[in-house]
Design brief:
- The complex is a heterodimer of chains A (248) and B (431).
- Chain A is α/β, with parallel strands linked by helices.
- Chain A contains 9 helices and 12 strands.
- Helices cover 38% and strands 29% of the residues of chain A.
- Chain A has a 6-stranded mixed β-sheet, with helices on both faces. Chain A has a 4-stranded antiparallel β-sheet with strand order 2-1-4-5.
- In chain A, strand 11 and strand 12 form a beta hairpin.
- Chain B has one domain.
- Helices cover 20% and strands 38% of the residues of chain B.
- Chain B has 7 helices and 21 strands.
- In chain B, strand 1 and strand 2 form a beta hairpin.
- In chain B, helix 5 crosses helix 6.
- Chain B is globular and about 70 Å long.
- Classes of the chains: A alpha/beta (248), B alpha/beta (431).
- At the A-B interface, helix 2, strand 7 and helix 3 of A face helix 5 and helix 6 of B.
- The complex binds adenosine-5'-triphosphate (ATP) and magnesium ion.
- The site of magnesium ion has 4 residues of chain A, from helix 1.
- Magnesium ion binds next to helix 1 of chain A.
Chain lengths: 248, 431
């Protein structure tokens, strides 16, 4: 369960989030939509603890824990996962090493035993197969030379390996072809259950045909200006944000 | 009675005067003349100051101000040596060859102590090591006592050889100046791991290598500089690389308070090649310096150089890389990259690439970057649960990665990776 109350945040001294109130109960998937520059990625960074995205007020509780007081790696260990809008390339860090290091860090934090290289490879191959990813991507540098869509799949692979309790997917659908979109949606749907919740940030209703959200929120000007059921996404698709702005 | 130890060049000259009748090979006229020549150079120039262009960034005054004595001769008691990495191993303690600690039997080539074979080194010792421009070579020539002579006959694949230098004298500051003479015959091969390590005492290790590679010979030379924290490491390699021969060297500099690893290599025959990679790491107030000069003197030769510098604390790094492409060196393929990663705002890097190209049909590229750890990369790793220290370590390793590329030998790779990891273990978390 994620509870955000009156969250305000600044980037570069400029207020971006102006009082976000949002509750994502355990087991639910919520979508966030909103115009470019409205603060969606900022919200995802504030929740995952990126430097430079400082909360100036309000709170964010995750299963009762004060997220904003935690280091990024502690948030990850607590089960928060961010699929980046722009995944970072790490030249010189092998993807397999990266994935195994991350998985073992999370396992250590949970008090589970670490996986050796063989155990890891077996698991990674299994998960990659489900995402129609080529094994060869384990050998390359993290995201280095990956196409846009491959980077997004690599994010979902990380989610599938790390098994978070809360996944924040920041435009994971953009740049994906139609088949990849289904594969990624299947990957998210496979995780759905009573112990998994997600915040799905997207511009397109189409993704929400595959990942059907419990709630849809509209973020504009640093606030949630409207919330509703899955139909709200269809309404936005038809009418754009102008109508909401006028109503708000 | 003990006289006060003199400092600087005067101190070394006084030592030379006192020792010259006792130094190995003292009765060899050619060697006495060579040492006298070196004495003249040392007397005339002394230790280079920063006013000398080649030493602009590296201040030798801490070395010049220290008074160095001879290492004490025999070391009593048991020595703990690092585990051998190759079957063949030559061990030097405080600069002196120790047959009792070495393992050199049954080799298909010759490895021996320079001190014991000086008469036959006439015309060879010093042939590749000009004294005039190189004060550290002059100092070594003045007062060297020992070193390793390696001769791999034509066509022989000598496999792996370890050259271990360990400084153990716990007493007053001391200096040693080994002279290593390495020759590979036509088509011969050798993989050499050179390790330099030592105690926390203040000492100067001033090795000079003369490396001579005949046609088609291949020398792969890994270097793990892991001297004690108070040490000075000033090393020089003079290499001559004949047609189709290859000299590949990868150095990790991870110890000492002041290090300069200098290489002068000449590609003297067509299709010769040279790779000179290095990873130099410094923390605290240490200084690390990689200085190289590559002389393309023949056509169709290739050279590749990647120097990576990681600086923590208030340390300083220096890279000086000269590439000379002579008029006759057409179709030269040269590449040089030097990159520094500053882990602290107080660390400083000086870099001076220098390309002098007189041939017209050449491909030469070079580049340099200086930067801090990338915040986005660090966040990406941390957001996946990787603790911050481990994330930083992964990014430092990633930064060094390119310097290790092409290092295919497992033994060298392992030794050099451990040297980096050891440094990170001592300095990484604090930086
Ligand atoms: N590092 C930064 N430096 C300066 N301004 C920033 C920074 N990051 C975000 N901003 C600003 O904050 C505002 C919100 O940006 P954010 O990336 O959160 O928008 P978004 O809703 O994710 O947009 P999009 O749909 O285009 O991804 C924008 O005006 C943006 O320019
Ligand atoms: Mg965004």
């Amino acid at each position: 369960m994620l509870e955000i109350k009156g969250l305000t945040a600044e980037v570069d001294g400029k207020p971006i989030l102006k009082g976000i109130d949002l509750v994502v109960p355990q087991g639910e998937v919520h979508a966030i939509m909103g115009p470019n520059g409205s603060g969606k990625s900022t919200l995802s960074y504030v929740l995952s603890g990126r430097d430079g995205y400082e909360a100036t007020g309000g709170e964010a509780l995750f299963h009762g824990q004060d997220l904003l007081a935690m280091e990024p790696e502690e948030r990850a260990a607590a089960g928060v996962f961010l699929a980046f809008q722009y995944p970072v390339e790490l030249p010189g860090v092998g993807n397999a090493t990266f994935l195994r290091t991350a998985l073992n860090a999370i396992r250590r934090a949970k008090g589970e035993s670490e996986l050796d290289a063989m155990q890891f490879l077996k698991l990674a191959r299994e998960r990659m197969k489900a995402l129609s990813m080529n094994d060869e991507m384990l050998k390359r540098g993290v995201n280095v030379g990956f196409s846009g869509g491959e980077k997004k799949r690599n994010e979902i692979l990380q989610m599938a390996l790390l098994q978070p309790k809360l996944a924040i997917l920041d435009e994971t659908d953009s740049g994906l072809d139609i088949d990849a979109l289904k594969i990624v949606a299947d990957g998210v749907n496979a995780m759905r259950g009573p112990n998994f919740s997600a915040l799905v940030i997207t511009h397109y209703q189409r993704l929400l045909d595959y990942i059907v959200p419990d709630r849809v929120h509209v973020l504009m000007g640093g606030r949630i200006v409207r919330s509703g059921g899955p139909d709200l996404a269809k309404e936005l698709e038809a009418q754009g944000y102008g109508a909401i702005q006028a109503a708000a | 009675m003990t006289a006060a130890v003199q400092t600087g060049a005067a101190g070394f000259l006084a030592r030379y005067q006192g020792l010259k009748d006792h130094l190995p090979g003292a009765r060899l006229a050619w060697l006495a003349a060579l040492r006298a020549d070196a004495a003249a150079h040392v007397a005339a120039r002394g230790f280079p100051t920063r006013r000398v262009e080649a030493w602009k960034y590296t201040d030798l005054s801490p070395v010049a101000q220290a008074g160095f004595a001879e290492p004490l001769t025999a070391v009593a008691g048991a020595l703990t040596l690092p585990k051998p990495r190759a079957a063949a191993r030559a061990v030097f303690v405080d600069g002196r060859f120790r047959a009792d600690l070495s393992a050199l039997n049954g080799l298909a080539y010759r490895v021996a102590s320079v001190a014991q074979h000086l008469p036959e080194l006439e015309g060879r010792l010093g042939a590749l090591a000009p004294l005039a421009e190189h004060p550290m070579t002059a100092l070594n020539t003045l007062i060297f006592e020992d070193g390793l002579v390696v001769d791999v006959p034509a066509g022989v694949d000598a496999g792996h050889l370890e050259l271990l230098s360990i400084a153990v004298d716990p007493g007053r500051p001391f200096a040693f100046h080994p002279r290593h003479i390495i020759r590979l015959g036509a088509g011969a091969k050798l993989t050499l791991l050179e390790t330099a390590m030592g105690s926390g005492a203040q000492y100067l290790h001033n090795p000079v290598f003369e490396i001579d590679l005949a046609e088609g010979a291949v020398l792969t030379h890994g270097r793990a500089q892991q001297e004690g924290e108070a040490a000075f490491h000033l090393s020089m390699i003079h290499a001559r690389i004949a047609a189709e021969a290859r000299y590949d060297t990868m150095a990790v500099s991870a110890g000492a308070r002041l290090t300069r690893m200098e290489i002068h290599a000449a590609l003297t025959g067509p299709k010769a090649s040279c790779h000179m990679n290095s990873a130099q790491l410094a923390a605290g107030r240490a200084l690390v310096d990689t200085t190289t000069a590559l002389d393309h003197a023949a056509p169709d030769c290739a050279s590749r150089q990647t120097c990576k510098t990681v600086l923590a604390g208030q340390s300083r790094g220096v890279f000086q890389g000269k590439i000379l492409v002579r008029r006759e060196a057409q179709k030269t393929d040269g590449y040089q990259m030097n990159q520094a990663l500053l882990l602290s705002e107080e660390a400083e890097m000086d870099s001076k690439p220098q390309l002098e190209i007189y041939a017209d049909d050449v491909k030469c590229s070079h580049g340099a970057t200086i930067g801090a750890l990338d915040a986005d990369s660090l966040f990406y790793l941390r957001s996946r649960g990787v603790p911050v220290d481990q994330a930083r370590s992964m990014l430092v390793q990633a930064f060094l990665h390119e310097a290790f590329e092409g290092l295919e030998d497992d033994m060298l790779r392992e030794a050099l990776t451990e040297a980096v990891d050891g440094w990170w273990g001592r300095h990484g978390a604090a930086s």
